[in-house]
């Protein structure tokens, strides 16, 4: 399977090269740029010497890349030579040099096809820089290297010097053949300016501790990599908050009594813990147990590196610029065990997940480590964002464009673009009592141009408390200010992302672990779109109108309000809703809830944790747990009363002073020359009013009366749900959703409170038996009841007799938007899928995260046309996740529904048996269903794996003509199920989003 994906990637990559158009714009005046990745960031190639020197790409990634890593890159550190040696003598690892070195850092990896949520290495940056006029091989180069040899600095820097000689053709200095050590000579000779991005200068303590103790090989294959040790907490750095390793331990006192104590170890003291905990650690390679203890030989080298970094200075003549991530909780210290479950023997640490204490940073690297305050910087930039996403962050692109003088940007504003000026920032840190990082905002004093030179001189003499940021202010029209930074003369930039590739994995793994907040700064506030006026100053002005306050509307209102937008929510009915759907939130949706800061909305509503599914068919059952092993214990699905959840989110949104909720029925959108200017609505007392805003977001649910103005709705109703509430009974598998593969269609059970279980009976078609004349009761008792698990039978009959039977049509509608200036469509008003898999809220919350991130760079929403063009990217960016969940819902419903076609029934049985196999056969599909891994390619592979599994059962051991015919019909039927759904979602948007022009839209210039 992995090799198949690799071949698909190569084919697409070749095709993209063939259709590549000539670069439309080249600026010959730009100075050359060399992009240098961090450890584990280069794409390597494994050369098979026994197979005609065949090359295979190797990268620390998922799917095919992870497969090649696990099979090609096994290596050990040789203390005699200081090299990491590949264990397979038949394999040789090389660095590709294609595309002037850019191939090694920008290559179409599987995730670029499968979805946006994983690594975007330098790809987006390269695309942007080419738009600015940079040209590959002329002014744009890449430098990849074998990250396993990160301790071979002289050799690596020798290659770097050669690359710089080629890149910087304007520099004609003779090479200093006598100097090959790294003391700054190479930088002095070839580099004028150096930009570091998300570089863990002082290490990444939280994740490195976890890496050592909870998975020494972290990605099978890359073992004993020197850079892992280099990324330990620098012991020679004066940490504001010292990273520690804490262990709850059980010990005996002198009297033989047992005591539970919490021990704390500094970075230096932790080394002995690592040694003891990993003394018997091994890893299996080629059927052999290989010892893998804590490597003191590598540690000696890493310690020398730490000492160098502690005293390093930027060489004379080189200007240093630093970009780092802020505003995310970042693991810093790790605690193992608890007072209730202490650690009795240190090797137990390998099986114990830590709880983190967090500081400010990019979610992976603490800001204190990444800001490199020991180096004299021309500027430091704090970009709110996660470690793996900063390289594709629009703030970063705008800042780099300004620094590189790639194009004129008259509205570049460092205050709004989160630039932190160096001198004031460095002075300010001395008066900080804790880790407090902030962007340049109200607390910074803006001084005039006339004062600039004088205050620069005075600043060096003044105390830290008197420091201020030096900027130049130019008055603009309409009360706006244009602020530009001085001394930004850049030529060559080295995007030195030390640790990027390696820590991508740490981030993906560690972000799921438990965290305890410590010294986390407040949320960033954006300026509003009307000259910075606050809601209190101008209550009639609104940035965004949201129509509807359901799951999407209320969550969006809180999210945008938290970002400082003035939000007006108009909801038809603000009383607690009472529905029979929207009651099960998948783990992927819960993770999005956490990302939005809304996880407390499932507290105090008697919500039940859901850990997976159980499927039943013909008296057999199988338990299918969510793959939550690498997540903190709190991460699971949640099931609840829909109305309680909605009210909690509405209440939280209403706590923000800049969010206004009101009850009213929106009757139409206000349109002027093709642009939506606001809405017309009726109040509770029938008064007709209008509301205006630069952006109107319609989230008025599945019964939307506004969607026809903004999309081409093709609503289908494949079935209806009949809802019951079972009381005072227990599910066969507690805290699990239950799916009964029944005739004619599935039946669902899941808890919605501590004493109630929701039952949803699917009835195909749009017509259901009548409730009033008893037809429904008869149908449920005689057709449905005999098929449900015996443990639920009596409660099911009681619920029927009690009454309260409710029905609801199940709607399905692909997203077919008409991009309209001034408006955006979201939630069920925009896109629906069959509710069998409970994926609706996960899609909605994922969309909200996307919209939040797209709007964050914008301080002005008034240019409706430019905003519409920019937000068109939303429709493409959402596709990999949304389409995966949509397609799975539609396909699974058709597979689980009975059919007179023997081939379809065989597919139905094959699906049940395939999931019952467990392991990868159930984990993959359940990861898709849960929203934990919504990848289109994975969905298609598993879907046809089920079909092939069904075919193999038919034709083995001896095929017959009838069985061959049924097998052919099974494959044909499977294709007939999934391909029409994929076509409706959009093949290119779903599988190849990077090929859609809107995908690469940049924010409009304010």
TrEMBL record:
Record flagged with keyword Membrane: yes
UniProt entry keywords in alphabetical sequence: FAD, Flavoprotein, Membrane, Oxidoreductase, Transmembrane, Transmembrane helix
GO (cellular component) term, any one: endoplasmic reticulum
Presence of keyword Membrane: yes
GO molecular function terms noted in the UniProt entry: flavin adenine dinucleotide binding; O-acyltransferase activity; squalene monooxygenase activity
Top EC class for this record: oxidoreductase
Topology in the lipid bilayer: Multi-pass membrane protein
InterPro entries, A to Z: AB_hydrolase_fold (IPR029058), FAD/NAD-bd_sf (IPR036188), LACT/PDAT_acylTrfase (IPR003386), Squalene_epoxidase (IPR013698), Squalene_monox (IPR040125)
Obligatory cofactor(s): FAD
Residue ranges occupied by any Squalene epoxidase domain in the UniProt entry: 692-965
Documented EC number(s): 1.14.14.17
Catalyzed chemical reaction(s): squalene + reduced [NADPH--hemoprotein reductase] + O2 = (S)-2,3-epoxysqualene + oxidized [NADPH--hemoprotein reductase] + H2O + H(+)
Pathway the protein contributes to: Terpene metabolism; lanosterol biosynthesis; lanosterol from farnesyl diphosphate: step 2/3
SUPFAM superfamilies, sorted: alpha/beta-Hydrolases (SSF53474), FAD/NAD(P)-binding domain (SSF51905)
Membrane-crossing residue ranges in chain numbering: 485-506
Cellular compartment(s): Membrane
GO biological process terms, semicolon-separated: response to hormone; sterol biosynthetic process
Top-level taxon in the UniProt lineage: Eukaryota
The family this protein is said to belong to: Belongs to the squalene monooxygenase family.
Name the UniProt record assigns to this protein: squalene monooxygenase
Organism: Salix viminalis (Common osier)
